[in-house]
Amino acid sequence: MDGQNLTKVVLLACGSFNPITNMHLRMFELARDHLEDTGQYRVMKGIISPVGDAYKKKGLIEARHRLEMARLSTDSSDWITFDPWESLQPEWVETAKVVRHYYKEMLEAEQNTDDVDTVKHAKKRRIEENRFGGSSHHKKDGLQLMLLCGADVLESFGVPNLWKQEDIVEIVGRYGLVCVTRSGSDPHKFIHQSDMLWKYRQNIHVVCEWVTNEISATQVRRSLRRGRSVRYLLPDSVVHYIQEHGLYSTESEQKNAGVVLAPLQRYTDVASS
User: Fold this and answer.
1) Do 17 and 48 form a contact (C-beta atoms < 8 A)?
2) Rounded mean pLDDT of the chain?
3) Cβ distance 68 to 245 under 8 Å?
4) Pair 73, 57: CB distance under 8 Å
5) pLDDT score for 268
6) Measured between alpha carbons, how far is 43 from 32 in angstroms, rounded to an integer?
7) Nearest Cα residue to 174 out of 148, 206, 140, 145
8) Which of 12, 37, 108, 233 fits a 20 to 30 Å CA distance from 269?
């Protein structure tokens, strides 16, 4: 397919990244390969958006540390980056709102690029129009933002009061989802069992990871608490940062213990009112 007709895609991953692991980064590479292999997409950028402290997840260390680890982990990538907007919000922000925020930013950036290109290539287009006679019509490249996640996030759509149904419809129906499988998960079955996900199944890209990599941030934190090596599970720069700042201890794992997770708190209150 002509590259000019490909839909340009930005991949957005939201989550705790507590800490960020090699598997988090690997998901972006897998998703890009899968989408571009379809011949319909060109992946332009990947964004890591760590959740803010107000999410209140047990063991969630300060956002400033998670942001810095995300920065360190993406230093060597020419297309994956991190963004602090979500983590700097004073209250927990629903994922649908985060997606909307970055989609708006993406459109504005594209508009600015188009404005520059309009001036830069005006003369070239006039020459082409004169050459071929009449005005030429150029199809504007498509532009799409997709939420990148693991199978556990997809399956969390079924947890009561964790997501607003209209947010799921917006994320999957309007923007699109790229879901990377893990052993023991069956995204296709979960989609089949959900009438809502089935309705928007064409917008869900399930990516099979044949070289299985079961790195879990929970297991990484456990190893760190016990003084075990986590090298090669995380980028070296992240390992060094954790060691330098003494992150992930028995004490830090008890942070927010007994506190209701922000979405459960918000949506349970709404459901009961």
Assistant:
1) yes
2) 88
3) no
4) no
5) 83
6) 6
7) 145
8) 12
**pTM tops 0.85, yes or no:** yes
- b/e burial code for range 103-127 (CB count within 10 A of at least 16 → b): beebeeebeeeeeeeeeeeeeeeee
39 contact partners, CB below 8 Å, separation of at least 6: 1, 6
Helix ranges (H only) for 95-164 are 95-120, 122-132, 151-156
> What is the spatial distance between Cα 42 and Cα 190, in angstroms, rounded to a whole number?
28
What radius of gyration do the chain's Cα atoms show? 21
In this prediction, residue 125 carries a pLDDT of 40
Using CA atoms, how far apart are residues 207 and 124, in angstroms rounded to an integer? 41
For residue 228, pLDDT beyond 90:
yes
> Can you give the pLDDT at residue 272?
54
Please give the pLDDT value at position 2: 59
The pLDDT, as a whole number, for residue 227 is: 96
For residue 142, pLDDT beyond 90: no
Supply the pLDDT for residue 91: 97
Classify the phi-psi angles of 56: left when phi > 0, otherwise alpha if psi is within -120 to 50, otherwise beta: left
DSSP 133: S
Asked whether residue 129 carries a pLDDT value surpassing 50, the answer given is no
Whether 170 contacts 20, CB under 8 Å: no
Contacts of 129 (CB under 8 A, 6+ apart): 135, 136
For the chain, give the longest Cα–Cα distance: 74
Residue with tokens 């070239």: 124
Terminal Cα distance for the chain, rounded: 53
- Residue 164's contacts (CB-CB under 8 Å, 6 or more residues apart) are 94, 96, 267
| Residue scoring higher pLDDT (213 or 263) | 263
